[in-house]
Amino acid sequence: MKNNNISGRRRFLNSAGKAAIAITFSPIIKACENSLYANYLVVTDKCTGCSECVSVCYYDAITLANPTNYTIDTDDCISCKRCVSTCEYNAINVTPSVYSIKEENCVECGVCTSVCNYGSLKIAVKTYSIDENKCTNCGECVVVCQKDAISLSVSDLEYSINDNCIGCGDCITKCTNEGNAISYAVENYSVSSSKCHGCTEKCSGVCPSGAISSVSGKAYINTSKCTKCGKCVDRCDHHAITNSEVTIDQTKCTQCGECYSTCEEDAIDKSGETGSTTSAIDTSACNACGECLSVCPENAISVEQGDSPDSPYIDKDTCMSCGECLSSCDYDAIEASISDDEPYIDQELCTNCGDCYSACEDNAIDRELSTAEILQDNCIRCGKCEDICPEGAITTE
Fold first, then answer.
1. What is the dihedral of CA 7, 9, 14, 18, to 10 degrees?
2. By CB count within 10 A, which of 243, 266, 285, 307 is most buried?
3. What's the CA gap between 171 and 167, in Å, rounded?
């Protein structure tokens, strides 16, 4: 009887335990119909393809169909290798370019030489200067200068129009080619009907262009024929004819003096003096484009050619293919081409000293063998290994 009671209690405890387990783990068991864990997804629009998650997944459960979304446009790439140095995964290999100068485009401005850290560019830099004895301060060179490298002399010189002006417009025509500072205040000749006495034969008799006629007993000026010579104004005894008038905008005037020398009526006054400063070209800013040469009416700008044999050219032995000169050139005068030359190690000369291995910053030299070997996929043709090899075992083929 006692044994039966014990067996009954055991069956009861066994059943109760199973029931408790079922109640406790029921949600988990139910979830296992799909997965024991919550579903993890890759947010593709945020994924950069760095593959760090792949490397840390112990179960190799993550696969990147496209390991990276980055590609290199070989048409735009200048082989400067900046991306190589910034990539912590050593995922980028760049074959360096060979740089050369297109002489037909080069103006020998020297900008590229200022950015080259290796002294590889050999340019006979042109230096532009202004001859103060010829310069009239017209300002044409300042207008065309792309780099704001030209400054004109400062002065308090001023030109103004006096009462002798007959409005002929010769000064306007001249100034249009200079500073465009002179314009008409009154453009055409006119007759005051209240003052005109009808003696048309007098004013029309001196008009060389036949622009004056009589209309309703008064003088009439045909402005399309009038040459603004001023003869009619002087001939009219009744001051009935008013001539054209011009004015000078001092903010635009370059004090070139062209109007002063052009006027035959002594109608332009000159006051003040030129300043102590002289017109000059900032050689550090000048890019030797030559635009100022073609617009200077007085041929006051000259060019001095610098000294450099066989200029211009790039010393390929020292060029590191950094690309700085290419990006600095405004004239598309520098081009890059991929080098087909591959450095190699003469195994008979190599002593496996390790100097090339230490000098190489691109992991392009393998020393696992008894002698060193160059990994061409990693090599950027910088030439450091060739320079440092004490045995002369590294050359380019």
1. 150
2. 243
3. 9
Q: Helix, strand, or coil here: 52?
A: helix
Q: To which residue do tokens 């075992």 refer?
A: 393
Q: Output Rg (C-alpha) for the chain, integer angstroms.
A: 44
The string of pLDDT tens digits covering residues 368-389 is 766 788 887 777 677 778 888 8
What is the spatial distance between Cα 267 and Cα 170, in angstroms, rounded to a whole number? 11
Q: Is-cis flag, bond preceding 312, omega within 30?
A: yes
- Distance CA(151)–CA(139), nearest Å, equals 9
* pTM (predicted TM-score): 0.37
- Residue numbers of the chain with a pLDDT score lower than 70: 1-46, 48, 64-71, 74-76, 78-81, 89-91, 93-96, 154-155, 177-179, 274-277, 307-311, 338-341, 369-370, 380, 397
Give the Cα separation of 19 and 25 in Å (integer). 10
What are the phi and psi torsion angles at 168 (to 5°)? -65, -30
Q: Where does 189-333 show beta strands of DSSP type E?
A: 190-191, 212-215, 218-221, 241-242, 245-248, 268-271, 280-281, 301-305, 313-314
Helix residue ranges per DSSP H, 32-183: 52-56, 82-86, 111-115, 140-144, 170-176
| C-alpha distance from residue 148 to each of 134, 151, 329, 357 (Å) | 21, 8, 17, 49
- For 47, list phi and psi in degrees, rounded to 5: -65, 130
End-to-end CA distance of the chain: 103
Structure tokens of 96? Answer: 């360096």
Residue 134: what residue type? K
CA distance 55 to 51: 7
Q: How far apart are CA 93 and CA 174, in angstroms?
A: 62
For residues 120 and 321, the answer to whether their CB atoms sit within 8 Å is: no
- Rounded CA-CA distance 375/94 in Å is 13
How does DSSP assign 145-183, residue by residue? -TT--EEPPPB--EEEE-TT-----HHHHHHHTTT--EE
Do 374 and 345 touch, CB atoms closer than 8 A? yes
